[in-house]
Amino acid sequence: MIKAEKVKISQLALILLIVIPGGKYLSLPSYMYSISGRDSWLSFLLLFVLDFVCFLFTLWAINLNRRGLSLNEILTQTLSPVGSKIIFAVFTVFFLLRVTVLLLGCVDLFSSTFVINTNWLAYIIPIALLVAVSLVQGVRNVARLTEMLFVFVMLALLSIIFLSLRSADFSNLRPFLDEGFKPVLEGSLDGSFWFADSVFLLFFLEKVEAPKKKDNVLLCVMLLIGILVTMALVVLYVALFGNASGINGIAITKVSQFNISNNSYGRLDWLSISIWMCSIFIKIIVLSFCAYSAIVWTVGYKKEKFNWWVFLSMVVPVIALPLFFEMETFIFNQVSKGFVKYILIVVQYVLPICLPFLTKAACAKGGREKKTSGAGRVKGEAV
Question: Is the pLDDT of residue 381 over 60?
Fold first, then answer.
């Protein structure tokens, strides 16, 4: 596969911090408002609570994985080779759809902020090359890049939030639950596709050492900070636009427009958005790494060397499908609101919750096999 590199827990925590809010300020707030109304922030909150629970189970699995098994080894030993390949095939679809929707959202962001029309191929090909270079160089380089950029990304987000606060009317959030709790639940269910970001940790199981107590705390804190920052902008978005929140499109551009009411700031909104977009590119690279790994484990490719055919098998559909189909409409109608989300929920939420038990079983099974083979060698030597 790709370089077998170890990633520090501190680096993994920063990636988690960047990935959580990355991409959630595009069309998602407007989409969630169209379902849950002014209580859309509650739908976000419910999903984040579920995400945090799944993250805790994932963290439990990481702590149990004393043998440094990969996700492929764990699933193969516990669910059979066929079962593991089915799960990785679903993972492949999930990650490629997530990458596609991020790229489409970025095109809309470019068109609404910097240029009127953004050529899809001229935009996507450089990003594909960036992903290829990142995969060849290894995930450790992505981790180092995150270390360099996370301060600037968070400052950009915080500047957008704080400079817009004075224009917010928080009465737009009331009355709470005026249509009951059903729209909130519907919003959470239909918006689940955009969440479960910590699932990428499953593809780093063999790349991290068993975390210490302080490492577990660090991961939890970074996740909670990412959730807090995301929730702040979601609440601010509804407070700024009220009933118009469902028709405003890209949330980050609309909120950042309130940053330019004072000329002394100049076009600080452009600067903030440009820096914030680094988080989306990092998220695209991380999800692409997960998709690459899922394809490799699905087809059974054994070599450590980077495989360009595997890379092309995931890049070509992402580039070509939006040229011929309305992929954004498909994702909203068939994935988010349709039956596809129920299939994806298996890898988003069910698998992380089951993973500690699967990891424990796989480690125990491996330990028994090692003990048995060792006993066999001793017996053979005695004869």
Answer: no
> CA angle 21-27-28, nearest 5°?
55
Q: What is the DSSP string of 214-256?
A: HHHHHHHHHHHHHHHHHHHHHHHHHHHHGGGGGG---HHHHHH
Amino acid at site 157 = L
CA contacts within 13 A on the Cβ side of 173:
14
Tell me the CATH architecture of domain 9-382. Answer: Up-down Bundle (1.20)
Question: How far is residue 251's CA from residue 291's CA, in Å, rounded to a whole number?
Answer: 27
Contact assessment for residue 310 and residue 136, using Cβ atoms and an 8 Å cutoff: no
Structure tokens at 72: 């492929």
The rounded distance, in Å, linking the Cα atoms of 371 and 365 is 10
Instruction: Give the Cα separation of 213 and 217 in Å (integer).
Output: 6
What span, in angstroms and rounded, lies between the C-alpha atoms of 262 and 244? Answer: 24
> What is the per-residue pLDDT for 16?
94
pLDDT at 187 over 70: yes
11-34: average pLDDT? 89
Angle made by CA atoms 144, 297, 140, in degrees to the nearest 5: 10
- For the ranges 106-115, 185-194, 217-226, 250-259, the lowest mean pLDDT is seen at 250-259
Cα angle vertex 90, ends 88, 96, to 5°?
100
* Structure-block tokens of residue 233: 């902008």
Query: What DSSP line would sit under 145-185, residue for residue?
Result: HHHHHHHHHHHHHHHHHHHHGGG--GGGGPSTTTT-SHHHH
Kindly report the CA angle at 29 between 353 and 130, in degrees rounded to 5? 75
Q: Establish whether the linkage from the previous residue to 352 is cis, with ω within 30° of 0.
A: no
Non-local (6+) Cβ contacts of 92 within 8 A are: 291, 294, 295, 298, 314
Locate 382 and state its tokens.
């005695």
Range 212-219, long-range pairs (CB < 8 A, 24+ positions): 215/9, 215/10, 215/13, 216/59, 216/63, 218/9, 218/10, 218/13, 219/9, 219/12, 219/13, 219/16, 219/55, 219/59
Q: Residues 286-326: pLDDT tens digits?
A: 999 999 999 999 998 876 778 899 999 999 999 999 999 88
Residue 119's CB is within 10 A of a number of other CB atoms, namely 11
- HSE-up of 144 (CA within 13 Å, CB side)? 8
